[in-house]
Amino acid sequence: MRSRxxxxxxILTFPLRMIAGLIRWVFGWAGALGRELGGLFAEDPPESTxxxxxxxxxxxxxxxxxxxxxxxxHLLRATIVLLLTTSLSLFYARQIMEFLAGPIGxxxxxxxxxxxxxxxxxxxxxxLSGFAIALPYIILELLLFAAPGLKRRxxxxxxxxxxxISVLFLFGMGFTYFFMLGPALEVLIGFMDIxxxxxxxxxxxxxxxxxxxxxxxFEFPLLIYVVVSIGLIRANVLIAxxxxxxxxxxxxxxxxxxxxxxxxxLLVWGPLVALYFLGIGLALIAQRGRDRxxxxxxx
Length: 299
Known about the structure:
Blueprint: H1 2-39, H2 50-59, H3 61-90, H4 93-100, H5 117-146, H6 152-190, H7 200-217, H8 220-229, H9 235-240, H10 242-256, H11 262-298
Helix pairs in contact: 2-3, 3-5, 4-5, 5-6, 5-7, 6-7, 8-11, 10-11
């Protein structure tokens, strides 16, 4: 009788215990995140070369497993946040799809053929929206993973870069929507005057892929500034390789551009080249600051 009462009690209190466990987990997550954020302002780690790090990894493989476990923890937390933001985006996916379908006159101008087309594009748009919202936290988790091996100033630069990355990504998607989609769709839909009714399964993947890749390309200047600031590359190398970079960016633009006409390719290539040279300007600033710090340290 007593065991039955105990079982019944567990069944009745299961929702409350689950909520309590979830609250403890959230507070534990917040506490761990707060401690790791505080670690960004800790003292610099001991100086070591890449060869020293590789030698240590060979001599103590358990240390590598610790790093792998730490990476798994950060990736797990980033994935959970991405799932949460994607779930939140599900409630606004229709409004987002209406907005994305603006260049062709609205979602009513799309015609689905397959039974699963609407739900497929619905989930795709939700995921892209969730990724854009979760991007700052994803970058923060990657920074927290790398923080133990970075100097204090490098950690601060990374922390400042977190919101900048998100802003640049949104700028890139906005540039795609307001300046690239219109001309690209005009060429695609009006090609050879063949009547075309876009399908959701072709239109939304086309739009979201273009916005995603151009959004990532807008990270170039900030990425260049960070790698020069922490000493992975020098600004004069970027200047010397400018011609090669322009050619490679043309190839990248041709791969990203949804059409084969040169006009739309130039619409992609032009901003990429401008972003590269903007990155060179930021690299010169970062290099000047780094050289000044090294000179002051040597003095």
